[in-house]
Design brief:
This protein is α/β, with parallel strands linked by helices. The protein has one domain: Alpha-Beta Barrel (TIM Barrel), CATH 3.20.20.140. Helix content is 46%, strand content 14%. It has 16 helices and 10 strands. It has an 8-stranded parallel sheet with strand order 1-2-3-4-5-6-9-10, sandwiched between helices. A two-stranded antiparallel sheet has the order 7-8. Strand 4, helix 9 and strand 5 form a beta-alpha-beta unit. It starts with 8 loop residues before the first helix and ends with a helix. It binds inosine and zinc ion (ZN). Inosine binds next to helix 4 and strand 2. Keywords: Hydrolase, Metal-binding, Nucleotide metabolism, Zinc.
């Protein structure tokens, strides 16, 4: 089938989409940050919402994961009360629903939201309140679950893993680790990952973004990650010869054979330097080799993006059409951390019928 070049924006938005990798503290509305900062006297680099949006995008456009992460001081800083967390969570769901997202797993690090005295439990409860309000306001057109993140440079992973288990029947679908990757290998938290496995739970690990193959190898083979956050550097284990034939190393083969989902975030990867450009993003090669590739936003604020925009960029860069978008979306739905019957229902009742109705 010949792919169509460039899909119309309104249809990209209308298409049912699935989002597995999106940070709550990376997706605030600029105007909300301005409001919340004024309430608590948090000093911002810009006080006008448009100027602030530009500041985030430019500051995050740094070519380094560490510098990119510095921008979060101004989102996390205004997310320290239950009411602020609930508002941000509710608006997140509203924004995703308006963009045609039908299922999302939204991650955040509870340990970053306790500066003003909230307990970890209260952080999760406040976010759940916002998600529930947002889903109800969207007429249940979207399902949103939490992933609880532990920060790699801290030492609270076990506590956060226990929190994820305590909330597993109240909206939390799994666990993640994030933060600077170089110097903080995932095996530092092996006890948390082993605990989650014993609890029959699910987790993803940011790996292969700010560091290469050893990080992916540890995440998969030592820690047992169900999915990889980004995983872009898996291409370092793939050689393409002059005839265009790809040779997979053992780790790349393992990741493909086991259908380990890659949560790829094209715009974010360009900003942190994990990929040179959208046009040269490894997603294209990995998708052509039938890795379990998914498309995600990572941080909508820092990348000034949305899931429909990320798909738009791919349709322009790679000539992707509805067939590729459906494949990527079904990949994501198959890889979600909710029960199989719920995933199956979304695929057969929501996703497939919509794409089947598009003229190809
Ligand atoms: O792409 C990323 N790689 C690693 N860490 C990240 C990325 N995006 C955000 N965070 C980190 O995750 C925390 C919880 O949401 C954020 O505060 C940020 O520090
Ligand atoms: Zn991320």
């Amino acid at each position: 089938m010949e792919p169509t070049r460039g899909l119309p924006d309104d249809l990209l938005r209308a298409a049912p989409k699935v989002l597995l990798h999106d940070h709550l503290d990376g997706g605030l509305r600029p105007a909300t940050i301005v409001d919340l900062a004024a309430e608590i006297g948090h000093e911002l680099p810009e006080t006008d919402a448009d100027a602030l949006a530009t500041w985030f995008a430019e500051a995050a456009d740094s070519g380094s994961l560490e510098r990119y992460l510095e921008t979060f001081a101004h989102t996390v800083g205004v997310m320290q009360t239950a009411s602020a967390l609930t508002r941000v969570a509710r608006e997140c769901v509203e924004d995703l629903a308006a963009d045609g997202v039908v299922y999302a797993e939204i991650r955040y690090a509870p340990e970053l939201h306790v500066e003003s005295g909230l307990e970890l439990e209260e952080v999760v409860a406040a976010v759940q309140q916002g998600f529930a309000e947002g889903m109800a306001a969207a007429g249940d057109r979207i399902i949103v679950r939490h992933l609880l993140t532990a920060m790699r440079q801290a030492a609270r992973a076990m506590e956060i893993a226990e929190l994820a288990i305590a909330w597993r029947d109240r909206g939390v679908a799994g666990f993640d680790i994030a933060g600077p990757e170089a110097g903080y290998p995932p095996t530092r938290f092996i006890d948390a990952f082993e605990y989650l496995q014993r609890e029959n739970s699910h987790f993803t690990i940011h790996a292969g973004e700010g560091f290469g193959l050893p990080s992916i190898w540890e995440a998969v083979q030592w820690c047992g990650a169900d999915r990889l956050g980004h995983g872009v550097r898996i291409v370092d284990d793939i050689k393409v010869d002059d005839a265009g034939v790809a040779q997979l190393g053992r780790l790349a083969s393992y990741v493909r054979d086991k259908r380990i989902p890659l949560e790829m975030c094209p715009s974010s990867n360009v900003q942190t330097g994990a990929a040179p450009s959208i046009a040269e993003h490894p997603l294209k090669l990995l998708a052509s080799l039938r890795f379990r590739v998914t498309v995600n936003t990572d941080n909508r604020l820092m990348s000034r993006t949305s899931l429909s925009q990320e798909f738009g960029l791919l349709t322009e860069a790679f000539g992707y059409g509805w067939a590729e978008m459906e494949w990527l979306t079904v990949n994501a739905m198959k890889s979600a951390f909710i029960p199989y019957d719920e995933r199956y229902r979304l695929i057969t009742e929501t996703i497939k019928p919509w794409y089947a109705a598009q003229v190809r």
